[in-house]
Amino acid sequence: MGRISFLVCQLLAFLYGSMQKERVVNMKKIKTGKWSTLLAAFVLTTGLSGVIQAADYTQGLTGVVGEDQPLLKGAGNTVSFDQKSNTMTYDFKGQDHTFTVTDSDGIGTNTEGDYVFNNVDAQGKKGTLHIYQTNNGINDFANVTGFSASTGHVTVNSDLDITAYSAYASMGVSAGNGADLVINGNVTMKKSDPNNPWGIITKNVHGNIGPGGATSMDPTDTNYTGARWQPSGFSVGSTRGNITVNGDVDIWVRGTAVKTDAHSGGEGVNPYDLASVSLLGDSIRIITPDNERKADGSYKEAYYSLASYGGTVNVNVKDMEAGRSHVKMVGNVIALRRSDRTDKTDVYQDGRVNIGLTQSDSSWHGVIDNAGKTQAGEVNVWLSNGAQWDHEAVSRTDGLDYTWMPAYSKPSYDNFDGVSYVNQLIGGKNESQSGFLSQNSEVKLHIANYSGYNTIIYKHEGNGTEKANYIGGDTTIVHAASGSGITLATGNNGIDLSDGDTVAKVLNALAGKLIYANYVKGESNLDGTVVIASGLTASSVKADVSGMITFDKKTGAGTYIKPQEGEQNTNRMQEGITGTTDDTAYTNANIRKDDGTYKFTLDPTTITVENGTAIAANAKVNIDAKDTTLQLNAKTGIETIGHAVSIDAKKLAVGVETHHVENGILANGGSVTIAGDVDVLADKEAIHAKNKGTVTLGSGTIMGRILSDESQISINQEKKASSVTGDLSVANGGTIDLAVAGNGNAFTGNITKMAPEGITLMALGDDGTVDLTVTDKATWKGGQNNADAAVHLKLNGGSWINTSTGEAVLDSLSGSKTLKTIQYVDPSDNSSKEIPVNGFISMGENAGRLTINNYSGTHIISYAHDNQGTDVNDYKGGDTHIKAAETGSMVIAATDSKGIQTSSQDAVENAFRALAQKFYYEGGDGNLTGKMLIASGLTSSSLSRFMGDMTFDTEQDGKGQYNGHLINISGDFETAIMKGARAAITSSLMLWRANADDLIYRGDLLRRNMEEDGLWARTYGGKDSYDATGIDITNQYWGVQVGYDKVYPEGVIAGAAIDYQTGDSNYTYQDEDFGTVTGNTGKSKVYSIGLYGSKDLGNQDHFDLTVKAGSVGNDFTVYNGIGNELKGNYRNRAYSISSRYGKRFGSDKKYIEPQLQMTWSHVDANHFTAHSGEEELQIGQGSFDSVVGRVGFEAGRNGKYGTFYGKLDLAHEFKGAVRGTYYADDGGSKKTEVSMKDTWIEATMGTTLQLGENGTAYFDVSRTFGGDYEQEWKVNGGVRFAVGSGVTPGAKEAQKRSLAKATMAEEREDISRSQTKSTISETAPIPHVQLVPDKTTAGKTDAETQSAVYTASAADDTSYGSVETTYTAPAASTYQGESNGTPVFTLGQVVVTANRVPQPILEAKADLSIVSRDEIEALHMESIEDTLRTIPGVQFLNYGSNGLNANFSGIRINGSNDIIILVDGVRLNDFKGAGSSGYAFTSLLNNMDNVERVEVLRGSAAVMYGSGAKGGVINIITRKPTSNTASMDIARGSFGKEAYKFNAMGVKGKIRYQVYDDKSIEGSTKDASGKVWPGHSNTKSSGAKLQYDFNKDQNLSVSYDKTSSDFTGVDLIRKGHYVGAFDSERLTLKYDWNLSKLWNNTLVYRNSKEKYLWSKPGGEDPDMAQPSTGDTEYSLFSDTFRYKSATYTMVGGLEYVKGKDNNNGKDAKNTSMFLQGDWEFLPHLTLSGGVRHDSPKNFDSHNSFSYKLAWDITKKDSIYAGRSDYYILPSLSQLYDVKFGNKDLKASEGRTTSIGYNHEFGPENYLTFGWFETKVGVGLNIANDGTYHNVIGGIIRGWNAQYNVRLSRYVNAKLGWSHLYYDDSSNFSMGYAPKDKATFGIYYDKDKFGAAFDGFYFIRDTSRATKGVKGWPSDKYAVCNLSLNYRANTSTEFYLKVDNIFNKLWAEHTDVIWGGGADTWYAMPGRALTLGMKLRF
């Protein structure tokens, strides 16, 4: 028999071999059954019926049993169908079978149901299914797959060997229609031909389009060569599905090897879950072509090893954890992400790629491609244990070929931006398990999240001392997890290792390849090392030399700094700390000091002890790491061994995110005290204290069990934001005192018994004590499972989710802070009631009984329920038993509204009756009252309709019972969730209404350019708000619009435009249950297309018409008061029509135009579903129709280069209403309707400018007033360029001639006006300025022009030397005055502050304002404060009456109180400190007779002026003696005011002199409400100045100024009588020398002394128990040079300053150098730049930089953009004050970016606009205890606009507007900050009479003020002042001044928001009159 078997086997082998030979030789397909019949007969005759032979099939499997069964039957394979499970099972008996298939899928699953493909024999051996698929069609995308799973669950228990070929769409394995395919076998896609190994290949690799393609999507794709539609090995397409391979993978694909392409999203489905391919076998090899090149050497095609266009690709990654597979990948990778650029719903979704490289033989060669930065998807890489990533492209990047994309797809893509974006890079657990990344490509690496350890290898050229020597792009790490480490390595080739300086340069250059972005935000988790290596391979580094990377605080760029002698020289310690002299490694690292302490200075520092203890205290351990993050990577973090461990660290990390310790802190006796932030991340025990050990920790994150055995553990007693995860256990009287705090933070764990080993069991209840505080909206999620522990729970505004499984016993439950406030109306007296709630307890469904021995406060205890809640058994969780309660305590029994018919009073009462039975109060003393409520749901709104009382029946053990006192408020109302949905819809509707008519204004911009067609674009942004009908909406938006205008005959203009707008909204509203709900957000989008036209009707009439259609959308998330979330996606269509009629009156130069406008806008009705967890809210929005009418006017002024205009409209909404229907299961259906009828005023100010012959630019600012829906601000800017000829030739030229004529006429008028003034006067901006006619123009007519030259002599305000400027101006008539017939012209205002050289204000290219001498005299300003009140961007924070707050004036510029005050360009003092330099004593600045003008420079100016200039600079320019004059000013006024001023100046020969003496007295003031503020002040100022002119080029001056002020009064707010005094002295020596016409030098010495006292001797104010005193002295020496030529200006100098605090003897010094240059490198283009170096005492030296580019677009127009740093040293008091000082303060620093525009209408008429953004790097703030501390980050952003104009010969005016956005760490944003501030001034002067009227309008930023609290008298107010002057003769003047003429009640400081009670603000004085007389001699 054996021989027969042998012969049979031989015969079978022969037959099979013949079959294979015939198949190969003849290339024929063996028909099904040909050999099987013969073999079957042979087997039957020999008795071997059990043998199953391999088979060849030429027909594929379809998955249809009836079709596949006959095919398989002949070979002994089977298929069966189980109807019950709807499963089809194929059995191939463990053999190798071949399917050679043409024009159909090899194996498919085409019947609905599940499939199993088994190919395993009886011994468990798998066979292989060989699938060879071919499709011969020219463009088939179906029937091109080897194995296709298209339904149900498909399981394959077989190996697969697949090849596929088609025209373009071949796939090896695919899944679709939601199929889940699991392959439990190996998968191979590879041919044996080494020259053509590609298992998956196509004829056209570009998706059959582009070159060689058989089809086209549209004409734009003819050159497409991208990889978007390539063949693939594994693929999941648009119909979704999942593929999992649990076997080995070896695929070679000429295309995209692995792809998920679920490019159409699914509602409610995370895009990453739409599709997946997971390769999880032991060996994974994925190969794509890596050497296909063109003749020029560049890559020919783009291929991807992995690609995700929606869904997830996993390679050796499961559940976001990497496995241990051996991986080899060759090919680039790509993942896409939907962004705002993705304008189609079906091009791609968010894609994710996960790659696990965790074995030493694992590798990947390739980069990460993208389709633009904003479209870069998520790629996560695990790289560890010696695995290698060769970061170099192996095929073409920019592989999706955006340039030649089909038109449908193209808008959704961009080009590759040259960066590999990695979302997460997870390295090895420690340095020895590092992965290796070779950066061999110029493609940069951007890693968003980094953790673990990795090594990046850079090759270099040359000697490696320059960054440019290194091959490969930079690496940027944004965020690093704590404990992360990275090494940058390079080879030692070409490097002289014996040269220490060379080595340092190499290490520094290599370190520069790394950027740690979040380091600038204060994060310091990344430990970086640079290495020069000898044994450098792709998977190992043998270091020759290494060093630590430090990161730049401003840029995050890596640097290497060679350690100095005695400094810590390494930040990676490989040994633990013992506290003994054995710690030699720490001694050698300069960490252990001679006194035995340990000081760490390198940030961060890591201690790694792989299997030991990081700190094992064999002796006392004292660690100082205050400036360092200390990371402990060990088995055990800290162990005391009976000794004390004390650590003071910036942050201590015991274990890190990627590598927890086993045990964190073990206190075996002894103590552990850790100050600062501490994280303990342990797998077992986070803290274990025993043997009377103590552990005291600060705040942070703790993971792991916490055990106290006869010991004490205290955590977070300062109650800062913190969280704990792990159980708590006490034994043998141990204690745990734990506090968790902060919204979103939690204690997650149980209170449990300690394991009994080694524990002495004590009496019941004596395990110990747990004091648990849950505060500030934190949560405890867990149970009290230890009845033998005394647990004291404090819910101070916190919650407990009770998951106790048995009875939970609390020894006490108490509360203090308020978590929520329940609001309701009591119908008995119709009064509003509030119940403050301290805590919230949610009883878990399986929770046992809750026993509370002692109860206090007010807490909600909530139960979930089944059914309708009418039976006590419906309520889940055990009963609540309260043993005793403090008087006034309350318990609120609550449940949700699910299943309860809240519309039925009986149903509600029955629910209350059942719920009450869950509560027992056993005290029987009436101390505890009870309430019952049903929380509102989606539409159910029970609480405000129903609230019940609960009493306790003493006869039934205190069982709760509902007492029938039901509050029933009739009517229906919105739930909070409904309000949130309505707010989101209203926001969208209002956005469309605002957008509907914007094209109507195109006509205004086009009527001046009727000649030519044009292309235009505009961008706009704004902020809208709505506060009515119970909702508060704020919406900030940005948009862009582009269009085309065409000009037609008969005065017709028409055009079309498209528009895109996006915005972010915030909604606030009241939850009738729980008060104000915040944190609700929406993201809106508007798309539209519009047509517009304008018709010139003749006689300057016109008619405009626009039509728009578009879509509006809003993705919103809203909440109710208990945190239930609703998410919705609102989408709708919208339309509008707008028309307008206008008629213009006036000339070509000036005009006014009344206008009438109507706008209809419509939004369709819409229905959609929003989701709250598993519940749904069906929302119906009724159709919205709006009709808005406007009537108003536009007024403007046309100039040679453009137009300035203003608009004012009254608008009314006639129709709009927001209607909604809402349906949810909990409350049924509800309807709401809210009218949007409204009336408001719209104001706009704007300008248009000509840009050469064919261009126009425009800009406008607008806002509305008075309406419910308010446009707080809107800014538009755009350009238009002519692109064709027009239909009215010559119109433009005629218009230009007309405008030119008008312009020249006005200029002649201006010149004529100027000639009525004296050439030189004591108020002239530039003394001694004489203008001499150019001889070449003498005798010309007044229609021609003259050239004049003026010279500013050394008598100019800063004595900077002679400045000569030539300009052209219209000629003027001769004025016979002091100039003896010389023509005189009035020049524009000259400034010196911007660049330290005199120049006209518009040439300074800076955000500047000026208050001139004329303005000072016209308004009789009495202090510098008066001059600054009407400057845009300047704000004061005063305490109102005399002497309050030590008579301080708080000045802010651009939102910052860090400013510099100069007098004649020299700072008054220094070392004021961050946050303090804006506070100046008002009496210091009250001598106005000595002031020529005041200049204000807004923005940072550290380079020019040094420390302090964050917000700006105030430069007080004093008057210069030019003639012999004297004056006396006497005034009396309201509030006991008296003022006496004397001033004299003169010139005699070479000597100039000036003296002054002033005295002012003021008594009690009265505010506008009539409230008297008692007080009295007496201020005296005197001074003298003497100047000697050696010659016209040199002068020496000395000045002395002294001020003293005494004040007293009563503080009505903080209480108490106050007294104070202030004295100052200032001595200044100054020497000016004009070295030549180009060079000038100034030497200055200034000494200032200041003393002050302020106290409340009565002791009424506890905050002022001790007097506040100051005694400081400040000295300055400076040498400044200036150089000025025609095209270049340079200013530089040296400054030395010294300050001393005589109270404490401390001093401060700083030496600085600076250089600033302005270079006109091309005509009209000026580049400016500067640097300052500060070397302060006790601080690191610092460099500040500035740069700016300015462009003179025309002679009248200029723009500029630049950036400037600021730097602020702490003040002496901030550093050394005994009570509040902090000697460890760092200097504050940051930078300001500015963009500005200037336009000159005429010599005295100009417009300036400046936008700024100040980013804070390091700031300063005051902690709750009053101490100073540094803060990181913050931003201030805004803009300032001002317009100065001379309206006539006698009238001039100025207007200003400033807008501010503030996000900084100070309290300024809590209602102090202005959102907007308008300023104005109007001045009249004719003959003997003069008048002036100025003021400001303040709009408070209330966005962060406490809602519902009236913190100020008014949030919007105007303060105006009036002055009337009469000149009786040349020497006598009388004046009447009225301050606050309208008697407005206003305040700049308040105590309300700090808990001071109603109306506790410091009101400013009301209306005040002053009558005075001024005599001149």
Brief digest:
The protein is mostly beta strands and 1977 residues long. The termini are far apart.
Structure description:
This protein is mainly β and 1977 residues long. Helix content is 7%, strand content 52%. It has 13 helices and 131 strands. The protein has a 27-stranded mixed β-sheet that branches. The chain has a 22-stranded antiparallel beta barrel. The protein has a 17-stranded mixed β-sheet that branches. It is globular and about 130 Å long. Mean pLDDT is 83; it is low at 1-51, 758-765, 940-945, 968-972, 1286-1388, 1445-1449 and 1477-1484.
Overall pLDDT confidence: 83
Q: Low-confidence parts, pLDDT < 50 over ≥5 residues?
A: 1-51, 758-765, 940-945, 968-972, 1286-1388, 1445-1449, 1477-1484
End-to-end separation in angstroms reads 146 Å
Residue share in helix: under 10%
Question: Which properties best describe this structure?
Answer:
1977 residues; 27-stranded mixed β-sheet; 7% helix; disordered N terminus
